[in-house]
User: Fold this.
Amino acid sequence: MNSQRTSPNLPSRIAFPAGPEARTEAAEAQSYTFGPFRLLPGERILRRGNQVLALPPKAFETLLLLVRNPGHLMRKEDLITALWSDSFVEEGSLTSQISLLRKVLADAGAAGTYIQTVPKLGYRFLPPVTRTWASVAAVGTPIQVAEEAPAERVIRFIALPFTVRNGDERAGVLEHSLPEAISASLAGLRSLTVRSSLLAARLAEGNPDPRHIAREADVDMLLAGTILCEGDQVRVSAELIHAPSGTLVGSYVSTTRLDNLIEVQDSLVHGIVELLMLRLTERERRVLAHNVPASARAYEFYLRANQVQRQRTLESLSMARDLYRECLDEDPDYAPAWARLGRCYRTLEKFGEEGPQSLELAKWAFHRAFALSPDLPIAHNFYTAFEADTGHAQEAIVRLLGQEERNPNDPELFRGLVQACRYCGLLDESVRAHHHALQLDPKIDTNVAHTFFLMGDYERTLEWYSRGALYYLDLAAMAAAGREAEALDLLGRRGAPGGPFPPMMESLRYSLQGDHARSIEILRPALAIRPTKDPEAKFYLTRQLARDGEHADALSTIRDLATEGFLCSTALRCDPWLRPLSRLPDFQDVLDELLRREADARAAFQAAGGDRVLA
Assistant:
């Protein structure tokens, strides 16, 4: 990136106004107020009322220099020296920052001119500025601040797919996999909220304006890039853009060999960190270090695997698994590859023909990822579904809540909590986790529709399920709400591409048609699988078993589900298809067992600080 980190102590060449109001250079004002705006140096944010206006670091430093010296001519050379003290930049860099400031102030509804250009000399900040200071306290007593300090600054970031020009198949892999790898690296930083690569791919269609992406993705910063190949040489150009204004913040250009792209990701990530002036903790530095493999060949296998698995077929997952293995043969200590390999093993075991050994290999891969990088975000995010499906959702809750303290701005962490809490029967907590995830990423799909289904809220089930791929849950919700004919019609129109319906869909079709014997015939082999590969899917099959009249077997299966880690006391009491089970003699014993296990999970949730985190 073509900018360097700015020192927090600006050079003394910058003139400060004399007089009592200036106090001393060391005593920074807590805030500067001008017009409807308030600038807070300690928090590095600009506010208008309750609205926080996003400013790139260099633009913020430029504005701070101007408001410290209202009415005074600030010469261009002095501003450049202060802002870029340890690098050479041209005057156009300063002009860009001034232009951005004027745009942000105007977009915020400010009337009149704030920054005056003095031709050939510099700039003058025109409005009067009021300084607010912390009150003076006696030695040894805490300083009382005039106002409550605002929250920590968090930058919302998205990396768009890169445009590949003149590239072969090897270069084409980079279109999605390189920005996705960059996003995964940055996701471990608490000062960033990183949008998903799936959202980035969708928004990049049609080459939209950055300001449109800023509105749709609700982001401050956008990374876009171009890859140009000539033989074995690859030229990567990337731009970091302040999305709301479309203003360039910094650019990056690198020419290297196609087999040495590891340097591109590493330098791009560190360049973004420097441009945004992110203050990294020692833990965050370790996470970034583990996102860089030891060899360029390992990185090439990793990027190819990431690209292949985007197809989301069992065949592509098998290919991705083998590529991750080759990556790890080259570098056995590359934690992200272990995490992604674990997900491949688990998905192939769950939906494919892989045997139990694949489940053990998944567990080993995840444990290896954690051993190498305990705070790696993608490892924690992928591992949650594994834990929930294998009967350890309560452990997942405690683990995720522990991670929240380290990385509170990762929406995927709260997405995982939605599932883990639901599996433990903590439905209100699951919905709270969903709302917390939405605050961080309004476009995230949290699968909260399944939570609403367990709560018996079928209207909100349909509302939230429509955000994802439509498969089964909307049909079940319609049928449970008494719209069985509509559900059956939709099921028939949906069809089964490439072959017959899977058992869950096929049994539902027969059940809704009134052929309960055929439905039960399909259900029994699916319910007999031990251990279950998907407790939540088994719950849906159990509901259908109850609807088809096999009440005793359905209640027994719900008891089995509790031992397998899926708790559903609310549904057992409220679901219309399960209601007949309440007449069975063992019903109260099963319900009491579910409630006891849910109480244990709630106690673990509270002990881990769940109420504080989701407040």
Remarks:
- Confidence is low (pLDDT under 50) at residues 2-27, 134-151.
- The chain has 28 helices and 14 strands.
